[in-house]
Known about the structure:
Blueprint lengths: L4 H22 L7 H18 L4 H19 L4 H15 L2 H4 L8 H10 L6 E6 L5 H9 L3 E7 L2 H11 L5 E5 L12 E4 L6 H11 L5 E5 L10 E4 L7 E6 L1
Parallel strand pairs: 1-2, 1-4, 2-3, 4-5
Antiparallel strand pairs: 5-7, 6-7
Helix pairs in contact: 1-2, 2-3, 6-7
S-adenosylmethionine binds next to strand 2.
Amino acid sequence: MPKHPGLIALLIQAMALTLTGVLAVAQTAFTLSLFEWSIVQGVMAGIVSHATRMPFWWILIHLAFAPLIIIALTLDISPAWYLAGFIGLLSIYGKSFKTQVPLYLSSIKANQALESLLPKQEQFSFIDLGSGCGGFLTHLAQTCKNGLFCGVESAPMPFIIGKLRSLFNPNCVMRWGNFWKQDFSQYDVVYAYLSPVPMTLLWQKAKREMRPGSLLISNTFIIPGVPPHQSIKLNDFSNSTLYLWKI
Ligand SMILES: C[S@@+](CC[C@H](N)C(=O)[O-])C[C@H]1O[C@@H](n2cnc3c(N)ncnc32)[C@H](O)[C@@H]1O
């Protein structure tokens, strides 16, 4: 059984499609329309995803996936729009398949909390691992002029948006690439808003590379088995928490 949720989902869809196909051909008791068969396929996929303990939102996706394809096929929409939508999504979320870190943005409350934590006078360097569209970082660069801010982003579309934003902020640079290849020893503060998946690896890299006295901050996601030195509840829309580890 594959471990990646995307592959498990693909397998479940293929399994439900095969079962529905066999049922449609083998039985003669019911005559269902294509849309009705797609609902049968969706229900089967939903049941299997529930049985394999996929999160609730995956079950909803499985239920709706095939019926939505059939509905979309009845609409008079040029295939070019689907292609454009696919390329757009690929340029934002394509790499999430591998990294398991999708794009979602830090809140204004996270920005405000960071502003109060960062040094007021002395120079410091700050890196945002996976800087998304750059809004979080450029906002900080505007309010903390004594800091040098670096963002690294691997998804093309968010990177381009972040790069354009950084052009107006002399103390902020955006790089396209993989943050695992960055040397953390160059920074006083390392900020991560990722997902539960890379947190253990991130801690190993931080321990190897970060300088004594520097600060690792994770928005929302803990490092398993490593209690933070401080946590700050943000009281924002996702009720997130900032976790701080002093190296
Ligand atoms: C949850 S978003 C956070 C965006 C931004 N830092 C913020 O706080 O608003 C995580 C971002 O990390 C990017 N990302 C994930 N893995 C990466 C990697 N190995 N190298 C560079 N960027 C990565 C994703 O493309 C996504 O845009």
